[in-house]
Design goal:
The N and C termini lie far apart (87 Å). The chain is mainly alpha-helical. The radius of gyration is 23 Å and the shape is rod-shaped. Helix 1 runs antiparallel to helix 2, helix 1 runs parallel beside helix 3 and helix 2 packs antiparallel against helix 3. The chain is built from three helices and no strands.
Length: 130
């Protein structure tokens, strides 16, 4: 005799709800990443233009500045890393837990992202003294 094991079907509603949360937060994190890429383009262009201006004047070598690549790349990496960690943590969680983890991940990533958005331009004083 073979015993049959009953198949337990999960309702589709919680999975659909989690998918909606994942998609909504993927868009939010993508927006944060696009803003970071824009920041990288703007900052690196400003540094390049400033250094080109110094090259056209005399005695400006001491004021040359370098692009803070580490901070700019970290700024870009924050959102994707936060999304992947939140997705990994909620892959088998209920909908309420998924929403809570993603809200927390977005808030934490947003706080760090905004700090870097303010910190990086302060590194580029462009020769001004305080």
């Amino acid at each position: 005799m073979t015993a049959t094991t009953p198949t337990v079907r999960r309702p589709a509603a919680p999975l659909v709800g989690r998918l909606v949360v994942w998609v909504v937060f993927a868009l939010l994190f993508a927006y944060m990443t696009v803003q970071s890429v824009g920041n990288l383009v703007t900052i690196s262009g400003s540094v390049r233009d400033f250094n080109a201006f110094l090259d056209s004047t005399s005695g400006g070598d001491s004021l040359r500045t370098s692009t803070p690549w580490v901070w700019l790349v970290l700024d870009i990496a924050i959102a994707p890393v936060a999304f992947v960690v939140a997705l990994w943590l909620t892959r088998r969680s209920r909908l309420a837990i998924t929403v809570a983890v993603f809200v927390l991940a977005f808030a934490a990533a947003g706080a760090l992202w905004l700090d870097l958005q303010l910190f990086v331009p302060s590194l580029l004083d462009f020769g001004r003294t305080s």
